[in-house]
Here is the input.
Amino acid sequence: MIKDAFDLKFILDNLPKIIGALPVTISITLISLFFGWMLGLIFAFGKVSGPRWLREVLKLLTDILRGIPTVVLLYVVYFGLPQIVGSLTGASLDGWSKQTFVVIALALELGISSSEMFRSAYNSIRKEQIEAAWALGYTKIQRFLKVIVPQGLFVILPNLSSAVLSIIQATALVYTLGIYDILGKARQIDTNEAHVKTFEMYLAAALIYWALAGVVTVIFSQLEKRFGRGRKVVAA
Amino acid sequence: MNFSWEFVLDTIKYVAMAIPMTMLLTFIPVTVGLMLGFLLAVTRIRKIPVLTQIITVYNSFFRSIPLVVLFFLVYYGLPKAINYMFHDGMRVVSIKHLNNNAVAIVTLILYAAAFLGEIVRGALSSVDMKQKEAATALGMTGWQTYIRIIIPQAIIVALPNYFNFVLALLKGTSVVFTISVVDMMSAAKLRAEYGYRYVEAYVLVGFFYIVFSILFSRIFLAIERNAKRHMGQTI
Here is the structure.
């Protein structure tokens, strides 16, 4: 009978290699967050002040994207987008990297889920504030940057934090497309070692995800302290 | 684009046959996980030493790590744990002795317990302390206070979050194909790879998930309204 050993040394030896794949996970996360929140702002704007047909379209899109699992959306975009673009324009997307499709799928999902958040943050700003901005002769852009963003940002910080965490978790699915992110790298090492240290490698990957989530949580609690400065705490 | 309706019609029955598995993977964990989560929440509220710290670490771990990694950890870790506990560290049990469906459900229960524990804790602590004092003044015991006064009010607070988690888990279960469990997504993936028709299969299975999502969210909304009415609340 073989001893079913737990090999801590193997984890420590290979941890640097897996951490080497961290830029892949982080870059997919950051780029998806950027485009996702951009889309979210646009969708929120459409929901607040768009024409009726646009609001109906956005509502339908919201129902669709809320109900569809991330992995299904990822595969629909990955396999479907080249076909749709191909049949509509005849252009080929063969040159696009896998990461591009991942970012499109994650950004779409985040765009819809964050649009609600942006909308309620906008609604949470009191009307007098906006009137005051008018009275001061601010342009629309000034009003947005100087009045709405600073106040709205504090309100949505907890939601931003959980969005970052859920995008990081969603990126773990990209290994199924053959991208070597943290999980992909851990699996690759496991394969190279003839699958004798499988548990160890998944544990190593898990520890890195755990640490990453810890870092994100710390960053956001610092941000909350910063943006919360000078705010009167209104007891609920 | 050659979208094959024939393939879609053929795939529908494979995906439909996997509906029960998706439902089991969703509803067993949210039921068992709720009971476990309740125990975790009460332990944390009572601040029982050592256990409280362990639960904090547990919650953080299960909430921070991608579900797909959790599946792998349990799938490969469970035989190891059994060997260490019962077989003196000898490799007696290995993954081929495990039932993948059971592994998936166990993982999801552990996962749900971490999330639901937090939801229950938030709901229980949201009940006004004065209610507790009033119950004590009426001569109720600790358990009576919990069951008659605190839990009914906490349920109203917890319901929307609980149902949100159910909907999230319904979608979350779609990664069980990674440990070869045949749910709706997995069935679609198998057909997609069999027939080389990926778009059709994934669009179809996406449609299934969307329909169930909308259906359940309607039902949940009705339950929430009903519960509020019974509690005499109008908001």
